[in-house]
Amino acid sequence: MRAPVAVVILAAGKGTRMRSILPKVLQPLAGRSLLSHVLDTALALEPARIHVVCGYRGSDVAAAHADYPVAWVEQPEQLGTGHAVACALPDIPDDHRVLVLAGDVPLVTAETLAPLLEGEQLTLLAARVDEPSGYGRLIRDGSGAVQAIVEEKDAGPEQRAVREINTGILAAPAGPLRRWMAGLSAANAQGEYYLTDAVAAAHRDGVPVDARLAADAHEVAGVNDQAQLAHVERLWQRRAAQGLMRDGLRLTAPERFTLRGTVHFGADAAVDADCLFEGEVVLGDRVSVGQGAVLRDCAVEDGAAIGPYTVAEEARIGAGCEVGPFAHLRAGTRLEAGARVGNFVETKKAQLGPGAKANHLSYVGDAGVGAHANLGAGTITCNYDGADKHRTQIGADAFIGSGTQLVAPVRIGERATVGAGTTVTRDAEADALTVGRSRARTIRGWQRPGLTPRSGSTDDGDTPPDSGSATE
Ligand code: UD1
Ligand code: CA
Q1: CATH of span 5-220
Q2: Who is most buried in 37, 323, 420, 429, counting CB within 10 A?
Q3: Is the CB of 252 within 6 Å of ligand 1?
Q4: What is the pTM of this model?
Q5: CATH of 263-344, one of 3.30.420.40, 2.60.40.1080, 3.40.50.720, 2.160.10.10
Q6: CA 167–ligand 2 middle distance (angstroms)
Q7: Residue 471 CA: distances (Å) to CA of 17, 218, 375
Q8: Closest protein CA for atom 13 of ligand 1
């Protein structure tokens, strides 16, 4: 029978090499903290308890993960990884097996860790890498048994050449681990109590040391600086993209796709290069998402097409809708089936009925637009009077001419027509034309500053000074 498991996650360090004010374990990976990734993996192992050792800005770290069922342990001074483990041990019974995880090694999977939970030996997770610098090296004796781990800063040239490295992750029975941690010395290059010295102590005690090699060295990549954080982000994104493609999502350029949340999708959904999905994104069957689109907490129904460089947040896009390119759908936007929102249109708390259109250069905020209504280029809902927001309601089959301002609160009746350039301040009647615009004048012979007069030009134009403009 497997011993009860206590997971100890080390998260007290500042992460000096990040050169950031944010504690290292709060740095973002795929849009959430490094620590949250490690916590999710720990939870998947169904341990008896999870202890997180915090120090630098520990209350911020705990507050950011308040939803997790974990015990927070304070390490008042960062005296080393061995000292950090020792801080958690008083709460862990002797019959437990302790799994130590690092808060800065976020990609390791529960499948890789599960075998470490078995047995009475000390098991450490190791990896064979081409570039071992910065890591502790595994030192084996003549028979091949692991004798010790030597930190890079304490290693001689021969030891530095070793390419078998410590991932920082190990498991051991709580009783012996307590003894080993009590016996640690800080007489080393960094003046720290090293957890890794447990290996030499186990070797001395005759407790077997089992080094398991991670099948994929990428899984155990640590984050110590910005370059490693970016590297781990790409590894995470690659893994996510491969999973999505396995499930049938078409990604034109998987290495240029970024996910910060979850995406669910139907058959033949396709996503072009450079898209960013955040929160919860749902794509129906045959949905296409154009290059560079940013979707956050959006549902896109069957057959809808999102054009390139569209940004949509908390929006629902109905079946067969066409959006963008360059549209901005803000929170509370709902497009019913077949609606169209074109380039440089911004919507907010706006509901567009089936087949309604706002194709160019508009702001539609706090508005309801009836079925098949058409909003011309430059239609603006003036929803804000400086103190309050007001609603605009547009009836089905209404036609709003270009360059129109709708000063809310205002209603446009069904099948109403509003002439181009009108400022609508009162409700517009159904089935009628509402128009209000000042007449344009032509002043002949007027000289624009800086424009050289036409040679020999005379005032012989035949437009009378007060004629209407051609737009009427
Ligand atoms: C550690 C290992 C090294 C291994 C490497 C893998 C030791 C002595 N060395 O080195 O063998 O190759 O990880 O990534 O264990 N922490 C605390 N309290 C402390 C010190 C550290 O909680 O007093 C936490 C850090 O926040 C971090 C983790 O422990 O999450 C590892 O510490 P770090 O200083 O990054 O160790 P490395 O030098 O990377
Ligand atoms: Ca580290």
Answers
A1: 3.90.550.10
A2: 323
A3: no
A4: 0.91
A5: 2.160.10.10
A6: 9
A7: 64, 65, 18
A8: 168
Q: Is ligand 1 within 6 A of the CB of residue 341?
A: no
For ion ligand 2, residues whose CB falls within 5 Å: 104, 222, 224
Q: Which long-range contacts (CB under 8 A, 24 or more apart) does 253-261 make?
A: 259/30, 260/30, 260/31, 260/32, 261/31, 261/296, 261/297
Active site amino acids: 360
Kindly give the residue spans of alpha helices, DSSP state H, lying in 144-188. Answer: 157-160, 174-182
The residue contributing the CA closest to ligand 1 atom 5 is 168
Per-residue pLDDT of 247-263, as tens digits, reads 999 999 999 999 999 99
What are the pLDDT digits (tens) for 257-287?
A: 999 999 999 999 999 999 999 999 999 999 9
Distance CA 320, CA 301 (A): 7
Given a cut of 50, the residues of the chain with pLDDT beneath it are 461, 464-472
Measured in whole angstroms, the distance separating CA 361 from the mean position of its chain's CA atoms is 29
Q: Is the CB of 298 under 6 A from ligand 1?
A: no
Q: What is the pLDDT of residue 1?
A: 75
* Residue-range domain boundaries for the chain: 5-220, 263-344
Structural contact between residues 125 and 220, judged by C-beta atoms closer than 8 angstroms:
yes
**Ligand 1 midpoint to CA 222 (Å):** 9
Model pLDDT, residue 471: 37
C-alpha 288 – ligand 1 centre gap (Å): 44
136 Cβ below 6 A of ligand 1: yes
In ligand 1, the atom with minimum distance to the C-alpha of 224 is: 35
Cα of 471 vs centre of ligand 1, distance in Å, is 73
Q: Please, what sign has the CA dihedral across residues 169, 171, 177, 178?
A: positive
Determine if ligand 1 sits within 6 Å of the CB of residue 164: no
Q: Where are the beta strands (DSSP E) in 32-102?
A: 32-33, 49-54, 71-74, 97-102
